[in-house]
Amino acid sequence: MTKQILSVSNMTKASLLVLSVVLSLFSFIENPNDKGIYVKNSTELNEAIDQANPGDEIIMANGDWNDVQIRFLGYGKEGQPITLKAETPGKVFIGGKSDLKLGGEYLVVNGLYFINGASPSNAVIEFAINEDTVANHSRITNSVILDFNKAQRNETDLWVLFKGRHNQLDHCYIAGKSNRGPTVRIDLAGNQNIKNYHKINNNYFGPRPPKGGPSAETIQLGNSYTSMTPSHTLVAHNFFDRCNGEVEVISSKSNFNEFRNNVFYKSEGSLVTRHGNYCIIDGNYFIGDTNSEQIGGVRLIGTGHWVTNNYFYNLKGKTFRSPLAVMNGIPKSPLNRYIQVTDVVVVHNTWVNCTSPLQFGVGSNVDQKDILPASEIRSERPIRTIVANNLIYSDKGDKQPVVAHDSLDGIRFRNNLINNQGLSFRKLPGVETKDFSLSELEENVLIPANDLSGSALYKGFEFDQITTDLFGNSRAEQNAVGAIVKAPTQKPNLIDISQYGPDWFPLNSDKKDVVKTYSVRSTSQLISAVQKAKQGDTIRLTASKYKLKTPLKIDKHLTLQSADIHKKAIIHYNGAAKTPAFEMNPKGQLTLKGLILKGEKAQYAFASLKNNMSSLYNLTVVDSEISGFDYVLKAYKYSFSEYIQLKSTVITDCANGLELSEETDDKGEYNAENIYIDNCRFKGVGKNVIDYYRGGYDESTVGGNLVVTNSSFTQCGAKEESEILLNTYGIINVNLSGNKFRDNQVKYVARLWGAKNNMHSDNEITNSGELIVEENLPLKLMY
Amino acid sequence: MTKQILSVSNMTKASLLVLSVVLSLFSFIENPNDKGIYVKNSTELNEAIDQANPGDEIIMANGDWNDVQIRFLGYGKEGQPITLKAETPGKVFIGGKSDLKLGGEYLVVNGLYFINGASPSNAVIEFAINEDTVANHSRITNSVILDFNKAQRNETDLWVLFKGRHNQLDHCYIAGKSNRGPTVRIDLAGNQNIKNYHKINNNYFGPRPPKGGPSAETIQLGNSYTSMTPSHTLVAHNFFDRCNGEVEVISSKSNFNEFRNNVFYKSEGSLVTRHGNYCIIDGNYFIGDTNSEQIGGVRLIGTGHWVTNNYFYNLKGKTFRSPLAVMNGIPKSPLNRYIQVTDVVVVHNTWVNCTSPLQFGVGSNVDQKDILPASEIRSERPIRTIVANNLIYSDKGDKQPVVAHDSLDGIRFRNNLINNQGLSFRKLPGVETKDFSLSELEENVLIPANDLSGSALYKGFEFDQITTDLFGNSRAEQNAVGAIVKAPTQKPNLIDISQYGPDWFPLNSDKKDVVKTYSVRSTSQLISAVQKAKQGDTIRLTASKYKLKTPLKIDKHLTLQSADIHKKAIIHYNGAAKTPAFEMNPKGQLTLKGLILKGEKAQYAFASLKNNMSSLYNLTVVDSEISGFDYVLKAYKYSFSEYIQLKSTVITDCANGLELSEETDDKGEYNAENIYIDNCRFKGVGKNVIDYYRGGYDESTVGGNLVVTNSSFTQCGAKEESEILLNTYGIINVNLSGNKFRDNQVKYVARLWGAKNNMHSDNEITNSGELIVEENLPLKLMY
C-alpha cells in the first residue's frame, strides 16, 4: 500500500482533502505577505532569524535550498510564535547537506520538504541548538522528510530529535530512513528535557525498510540510561505505514508516555514499553496481514502500564511479535535489560482473527541458564497484572489463544470473552467462551454484531477512569467487554490518509511515471537503456549475446529479460577483476529473467557498492544461468538487501556463491533480510555457497530469513574452510527443505540453530557430510 | 539527650506545651461524649466499628487493652471521618499481642499508646486490612509506639506500614525499635498504593538503638523492586533524635518524595535517596556531634534529586556518612544496586563546622575490580550535576572541604563560597574563598553575621523555583548564597519538643524514679536486691564473698560494686554447666566495679538469653577479676550489645573469652556494636579470646568496632582452632594499640582488613605468631 494507492482507495475522502487544502490556502491569504519577512537565501534567512520578534513570520522562497544549516534561535510568546514557513508548502526543498536546529521559545516551522540530501550533523531536525539552548513550546508542522539518508547505514542520525519541553511534531510525512538511528527520538538527558509533554500527532510515518539489525525504531522515547525520567510524551493519531525498520516500531524508554489512537498498518514490529513505566496505550489499531508473521502488536516490559481500548486485527506475529506480548523479566535487572512486569492493566481490548494473541512470560529463557550469564536469564514472570473485560474473536478458532511461556499465577484474568468457534483450548478461569458474531464496519475493522453489554464486567482499581471506548463512545451509559461498546456515529476511515501528514503531500510531481519497455539488440543499447530507464521499466534483450566490459549500475527498479524465454540471451562480462557485472546501488532493484550470465573467473556477477550504500538493494534472478564468476554475489559491509531471490536458476563453476557475511562486529547486524532459493542447481561452487551471518546475542532480534527449497548442490564446497556448505551462523529463521546434496566435500551440509526457528525436512544427503542441529549457539553478548 | 532533658532545657516552651494540652482538652470537650460511641472491650469495639457511619467517633475506654487486634474497617467521608480515639489521649494502653489495621476511607486514630507488647503480625499499625482492602485518606495522630519489639531482632515487622493513598502519620512519638525492619515503611506494590501523597509530619522519632546489621531504617519509602513507582510522600517537620538503627535514617526507594524541614539530631546515619529519583530535600537541619563520626547528612544515588536550603552542622561522618555524599554508580546497575547520579541539583545549602562536607564519587571501588564481580564495581561518576550557591564555613579550616573520590568532570561548581580560615585547599573553579563570620541564632544554629547578598548567584535551570530560604524568608526580594538569606522573624527553636509528637507525651508517670543504692551483705540479699532494684540503681557488696547457684537476671540498668574498692568482694558461681552468673536480658545494662568473679570451669560469667533478646544489653566491667569460667561472655545468635567494655580487669584461666560470632548467616549482622578493652590482662584463655564476626559483603555497612588498648595477652589461644588470637573477621573498625602479646600459641595475633578502618600500632609481640593485614577479604555477596 503506497500513499497513492491509499488515496485512490479513498475517493470518498477526496473532497475532505480538497477542503483542507482550501482552508490552508485561505489561512495563508489571511496573513498577507507584508506581515512576513520574505527570504531568498541563507544570508537573508539568518538575518531575519536574528531580528525576528514575537509574532513574526519568516517566509522561505520557493525553490531549492541546498546545503543550509538553519539555526532557528528565537523567542516568541504564547499566541505570538515566530514562524518559519515555506512560501508555498511543499515547494521549499531542503537538500544537500542540510539540517534545522531550533532554540528558544514558541517557534513554528511550517511546510518544508527535506529531500535529496542528508543531515551533516546528528539530526535533520533538532529541538536544540546546543546543550544549553533547547527549544520549548515549538512546533514542526506540515512538513516532509523523505529518504534523507546518510551515506551508509552504519552512519547514525535522527531525523527529528526532541529536546526541551512542550514541543510538537504534527501533520508531517516522514519515510524511507535506511541508516542507523531511530527516525524520531526524544532526548531526556538533563532536567531541561524531562516532564516534556511533547506531542507527536497526526503524522504519516511512511515505510521504513528493515535495517537488518537494531537501532531502526520509528519513534524512540529516551534510552535506558534515562529510563527513570518522567517524559509525558503524547503520541496520538499517527499512521504507521509498514514501519519495518526493526522489532520496535515505537520503543518507549521513559515514564508516563501516552500512545493514543494511532494506526499501526502492517508494520513489522511492535509498540514496546522497552524501559520506563506507567505508559498508557489506549485506542490504537494494530492491523496485520495474513501473510506476515513479522507484524506485531504491543510488547510490555516494566511496571504500571495500562493497555486499554485497543483493536488488534489479523496479526500473526509470534512470541516477541505476538499481538500482546507480556514479557518475563530478569531478576533485579540491569538498567538496560528486562525489568519484571508488575502492576500492568490490560482491559477492554479486542483481538480479531489474531493467532495466539495473548502471550505471557514471553522471552522466558530459563532453559538457557547454562549457556548465558545469570544477568541474561528472564525468569521473573509477570505479577500483579490484571487482564479483564477483553474480547477475543477467531474466525477459524485458535488452538491456543492464551500462551503461557511461564506460570500465569501472577495474572488475574477476569471477565474476558472469546468466540473460538467451538474449538477447544486450555481453559482459564476468567476467559469464558461466548457466542457472538462480528460485522465489518469498514476495511480491517470488525465490530461485534451482537449487543454484548449484558455480559458482566470486572470492576478493577480505577477502571472507572476508562470513560470511553475505541471510538470515543461513553462507557458510562452503556458498557461492554472489548474495545468497542457500539458502532461509532462516524466511521474511523482508518486508511484515509487525509487524516495524517501534510495536506500538500504527496505532490503531483511525485506520481509514478508510466512504465516503459526498451528492446535492446546490442551491448551499447543495453548500456544506454540501463542508464535511461526509469523506475519500474523493463529491458528486453533481443540479441543472443552481449559483451560487457564495465559494470552496469543498477540504482532503480529494473527488469532485464530475454526477449524469447526459450532462447536465453547471454551476457558475457569480462570487466576488471573483482568488479561486478551488475553493480547494485542504493535503491537498485534488479530482476533478471531467462538470461545467461558468464564471467571469466575473476569477476563478480553481482555486488553491492563497497561504500555509501545509503539504501537497500534487491535482487531477483529467475530461469537463468550463472557461471564462471569469482562470486555470484558479493555483499560488502554496511550493504543491505531486503530480498535476494533465486528461482529456477543454475549456478555452476564459480569460486564463491552468495557471500552475505560481512557484518562481523557481532552487534546484531546482517547483510540481507530474506534469501529465497527455490528450484535452483548449484554445481562446482568452490566455497561460500551460501554464507549468511548474523552475530551478537540479542533475544529480540527476529531476523535473517533463509529459505532453500527443492534445489540441488553438487560437487560444491571443495575449498570451504568452515567445513560447512550452507553457513547460516546466527540467522534466526532458516528452512532447508526438499533439497538434494550430493558429493559435496564438506563436513557439514549445515549447522542449524535448534533454539531458533531453524528447520529442515526432506533433504537427500549423499556423500556430503552431515546436517546437524545445535540447540544453543555461543554468541557474543551485545549488552 | 532524652525527651525529659529536652523539655527541661526548654522551660521557655513549657507554657506553649500547657497551652496545647489545654487546647486539646478543649477540643475534646467540644465533641461531647454523647456524640461518641464509648467502648470498653474488643467486642464492643468491633461492634462499634461495624456500625460506624461518617462523622462517628468511637471512644476507647482508658486502661489496658491487651491482645487486641483492631481491624478498623470503615468508610468515612471528606470532612466526616470515622474516628477511633482514646478516652484520654495517652491513657489507652495497647499491649500484649496487639496490632491495628485500617481499611476504607477517611479514618482517624487518635491518642493511643502502644507499649508493653508486640505485634503478632507484620506491623503494629498498617494502613490495610488485606491486599484488596487498603485505607485511603486516613490518619494516625497523637499516638505513641514505644519499645513494641518482637521477641528477637531477627523477627521482622514494621511499626507503621503505609499502604493506600493520602494517609498520614502525625504528632506521634515512636521510639525503641530493636528488631529487624524499618520503623515506618511505605509499601508501593500494587497500583492502589502508588501516587500516594502520604504525609509523615510533626512526629518525634525517638532513639532507635543500632541494630548491628541492615534493615533498621527509621523510615523506608518503598523497596528496590518497586523503586520505579511514583510515591510523592511528604516527610516534613519531624524530629529524628538519635535514630541510630543503621546507616540509613531515611531510605528513599521511590520517586518524587519530599523531605522538608526535618531535624536530624545526632542520628547515626543519613537521609539516603537509595533507589528512585527526583526527590526534594529542602530546608532540613542535620545536627552532628564533635565526638561521633557516625552521624551523616545526605547521601545521593540516582537521578534528578534537588538538595536545597539545608543546614548541616558539626557533622564528622566520612565517605558514606559524609555530610553530602554523592555516590558513584554501577554501570547499567541492577535494580537493587547503585544507579548512577545524574541531573542532581545541590543549591543554596550551608555547611558549618563539618569535616570534608562535600564528597563526590563516594563508594568508588574500581581498585577492587579483581575481587568483586563487575556488577559490584561503582565506576560511574556523577554527571550533569550542579553544585551552586552553597556556603561553607569551617571554624578551624578544613584541609579538604571537597573530596573527589573520582573525577569531578561531571559536576558543575558555580558560585559557592567558603570561609576556610585561610587554610589552603585544592582550588576548584566555582568554589571561592570569602571572608565572613557567623553568629549563633540558637543552640546548633549559626547564621552569617555578614550580609552576603552582594555575592553573585548562579542562575541555573529552574532555580527560580527555590523561592524561600531555610527559615521561609523570600528569596525574591533579597537573595544570597547558602541556606539562609537573613535571620528569621522567629527563632526555629529546633529542639523544642513541643513541636513534635503528641502533646501528652511524655506522661508524668514515665518520669524516671530517683536512683537508689542497696547495700547487700549476703547472697540472698544480693539476689533480692537484683530483683527489686529499679532502673539505674546501684548495689554495694559489703561482704567479702557471695555464693551463687543460679544466674542473676539482669534486665535493667544496674551497677554492682564492692563497697570497698580496695577489698574486692568475691562472687563465686557454681550453677549448672553452661549457665551464666549474670544472665543478660533485653535492656539489661550491667556495670561491675571492683569485683572478683569466679567459676568452676563449666559455667559462663556472662551470657545473653538464648532466645527472645528483644532488645539490646550492655556490659561494663571495671577494676575486676574474672577466672575459672568456660566462657567469659557468651553472646547467642540474634543477641546484640551496643557496648561491651572491659577496663582494668584481669581475665585468667578460662576456656573461652568473649564469644561474639554467632551471626554466621553472612547477611551483614553482628553481635555487638562496640567492644572496648583497655588496660586488661588476659592469661590462660584457651580459645576465642576475642571472637568477633560480621559476614557478608555490603559496602554500606560501617559497623563493628573493636578497640583493644594497653592490654596484655599471655599464654592464650592454646586451643584456638582458627589459629588467630583476636579474630575480627569482617569487622569494619578495629584498633589494636599498645598491647603486649607474649607466648600465645597461635599462628596469628590478628588478621586485619586493610581496605577498611583496621589499624594497629605499638604492639609488642613475643612468641605469639604474626599480626598481619590483608587488603581485601573475600566476603559472601549479600545481593
UniProtKB/TrEMBL annotation, chains A, B:
<dbReference type="GO" id="GO:0045135">
    <property type="term" value="F:poly(beta-D-mannuronate) lyase activity"/>
</dbReference>
<protein>
    <submittedName>
        <fullName>Alginate lyase, family PL6</fullName>
        <ecNumber>4.2.2.3</ecNumber>
    </submittedName>
</protein>
<keyword id="KW-0456">Lyase</keyword>
<dbReference type="InterPro" id="IPR012334">
    <property type="entry name" value="Pectin_lyas_fold"/>
</dbReference>
<dbReference type="InterPro" id="IPR039513">
    <property type="entry name" value="PL-6"/>
</dbReference>
<dbReference type="InterPro" id="IPR011050">
    <property type="entry name" value="Pectin_lyase_fold/virulence"/>
</dbReference>
<dbReference type="Pfam" id="PF14592">
    <property type="entry name" value="Chondroitinas_B"/>
</dbReference>
